[in-house]
Write a structure and sequence with these properties.
heterodimer, A: 370 residues, alpha/beta, Rossmann fold, two-stranded antiparallel ribbon, 16% strand, elongated, B: 252 residues, eight-stranded mixed sheet, 37% helix, 22% strand, globular, HRR_RAD51_Paralog (chain A)
């Protein structure tokens, strides 16, 4: 019997997002299901088969006995329902659009791990302070609005957004003034200094999408830089559950937006797991022990639950080859003028659509990350 | 803590990057040409800027300079604010400040005649905090200072690391640091002030080899929470960037 696993999974998620579906309505739209009588349909709801998913889960034998129709008809109805649902969901949901990051090496890597930059994807970017997470996000936003005439919502939690940096990037790209203006107009900035504001922003965006507000409909990418300042004061054992609850709400909001075709990129910070002499070791870096035992030494913040929210987690790292060699002391002596070769390693930490663990090299330039 | 829900009135799309660029920015000049160009006109209000370096590299000097530069009159493009100096090391020298103020007075003599050194000194408020508990108390009471003196545009903590690193207990230190960050962020939401904190360097043994390398004190989370970090080297050069390995040299 051809029960498509993907169908069930999709069904489950849809059910959750779109609420209970009208099973009756659906059945009456299928050619075989049309022949069922009102009495038979009532029987279904009396037996707690109220949603499409319930119907799909119920065994053929039971349905056969319940509705007193041949097993073949039951199968037929199920198949038709599945087809109908697929057709409807495709008509409803926005088609998946591939955007591309505009960073050649990264696009190649992401294609190879089956996670191109598409609508509805939730990405997380982690890394140590100063590795270029913000620059990566700026570059992504710029590339995005430049290539597609759509808008980006940049949620700034650190009150850190710097037009100067955007302008510098634009300057280095030598675009004409009109393009620069268009690009800058398409990047909308919202300050979200606390977690409540952050949730409010996402909620508002969702409401405005429903209300068909022009700006919201054009927005296709949400960038959050970064999650940490909003949640950092929920610390210690007592606040752990509060934080978890708030993160769950955030995850729901983001997933809701993802279901409507918005892509999101979220910034996070990672900690080295071994540095015990740090003032960091009070359990803040919780969870994710399996990741740490693997070759990644760094664990992003927010633990195992948050790790499951994003469809792709990337970490931005300094390549290990040059580690600790030239750092000796420029503080005492004025020596080399450039300490940073601008190379960054992008590591795929986890990936819900394909293999993880691949990496590629990017270079930080005046014009952004390439 | 919880802010009232603004979802009904919130307009997400009236603040594009372009709009921000058109608006005039409130920055405090650092007086260091390279730094000013890289920072887009100086230190931004509403951000936490950290100055880091070994002792004697000019961190306190820049702090004092900023305390004066924030007072530059509006007629010559300044902010005409005042400054609060939170001193944890008890090495605040009014004479040093006076010297700098006189220099600044000379520089602005023609353009802003009323901008005098003696008046500048009056507008630098000084709080002494010999230990971490007092530092915390001062930061918590900042909202009162800001209410009484709404023209305070700059709060300096010199040095943030000093008092925190006197605490033996790592967990307590971390707790206090995050508490400080929380208060600083809260104050920033209510008042448009710039925070300038100073930090010191420490050495850490790298995991693989036995090599020591230089890192900033106070940990990674702190590094993530500050907005800008300026490194000072002994050769009077400034670098900009969150971590020492990747910061950029700023030419004066």
């Amino acid at each position: 019997m051809p029960i498509d696993i993907e169908f069930i999974i999709n069904l489950k998620t849809r059910e959750r997002s779109a609420g209970v579906m009208d099973l009756r309505n659906m059945i009456s739209q299928t050619p075989t299901g049309k022949q069922l009588s009102e009495y038979q349909l009532n029987l279904l709801s009396k037996n707690n088969i109220e949603t499409l998913f319930d119907f799909h889960e119920t065994t053929e034998k039971k349905l056969h006995e319940l509705l007193a129709i041949p097993k073949e008809s039951v199968l037929e109805i199920k198949k038709e329902l599945a087809d109908l649902w697929l057709r409807q969901s495709q008509a409803e949901g926005p088609p998946a659009v591939e955007y591309g990051t505009g960073m050649e090496e990264l696009d190649k890597l992401l294609d190879s791990v089956d996670q191109p930059f598409k609508s509805g994807r939730i990405w997380e970017l982690c890394g140590h302070p100063g590795t270029g997470k913000t620059l990566f996000m700026y570059t992504l936003a710029l590339n995005f609005v430049w290539k597609h005439s759509q808008q980006v919502l940049f949620i700034d939690t650190k009150s850190d957004f710097s037009c100067k940096r955007i302008q510098d990037l634009l300057l280095a790209r030598n675009w004409d003034a009109a393009t620069c203006e268009r690009v800058m107009r398409a990047i909308h900035v919202v300050q979200a200094p606390t977690d409540t504001v952050l949730i409010d922003v996402l909620k508002t965006l969702d409401e405005q999408l429903t209300a068909q507000v022009d700006g919201a409909l054009k927005t296709k990418l949400v960038v959050i830089d970064s999650l940490v300042p909003c949640y950092v004061h929920y610390r210690g054992d007592e606040m752990f559950k509060v934080r978890q609850a708030l993160l769950t709400e955030l995850a729901c909001r983001i997933r809701r937006l993802a279901a409507r075709g918005l892509a999101s990129v979220i910034g996070n910070v990672s900690f080295p797991s071994e540095d015990k002499d740090d003032c960091m070791d009070d359990g803040e870096d919780d969870g994710n022990s399996d990741e740490k035992t693997a070759r990644h030494k760094d664990g992003p913040m927010f633990g195992a639950y948050w790790a499951s929210v994003c469809t792709l987690r990337m970490s931005l790292e300094l390549p290990t080859g040059s580690d600790g060699e030239e750092t000796s002391d420029r503080l005492g002596e004025a020596t080399s003028s450039s300490c940073d070769d601008g190379l960054r390693l992008v590591n795929v930490l986890s990936n819900t659509y394909g293999p993880a663990g691949d990496s590629c090299l990017l270079r930080i330039t005046e014009a952004g990350v390439v | 803590m919880a802010s009232p829900s603004t979802s009904k009135t919130m307009n997400l799309f009236n603040n594009s990057c372009w709009d921000i660029a058109q608006r005039s920015t409130n920055k405090i000049l650092t007086g260091h040409k390279g730094l000013d160009t890289h920072l887009g006109g100086g230190i931004s209000l509403g951000q936490i800027t950290e100055l880091i370096g070994t002792s004697g590299t000019g961190k306190t000097q820049l702090c004092l300079q900023l305390c004066l530069n924030v007072q530059i009159p509006k007629s010559v493009g300044g902010l005409e604010g005042s400054a609060l100096f939170i001193d944890t090391r008890q090495d605040f020298h009014p004479e040093r400040l006076l010297g700098l103020a006189k220099d600044l007075e000379k520089r602005y003599k023609r353009r802003a005649p009323g901008f005098e050194a003696s008046r500048m000194l009056k507008r630098v408020h000084h709080v002494r905090c010999p230990n971490a508990a007092q530092l915390m108390a001062s930061v918590l009471s900042c909202h009162r200072h800001l209410r009484d003196h709404p023209d305070i545009k700059l709060i300096v903590i010199d040095s943030l690391a000093f008092s925190l690193r006197m605490l033996e207990d790592g967990a307590q230190r971390f707790e206090l640091l995050l508490e400080l960050h929380d208060s600083m962020r809260r104050l920033q939401r209510q008042h448009n002030v710039a925070w300038v904190v100073t930090n010191v360097l420490t050495h850490r043994c790298s995991r693989r080899g036995q090599k020591f390398h230089v890192v900033s004190a106070l940990g990674i989370l702190h590094s993530h929470l500050i907005n800008e970090r300026i490194w000072f080297s002994q050769s009077w050069q400034c670098y900009l960037g969150k971590s020492w390995r990747i910061c950029r040299l700023i030419n004066a």
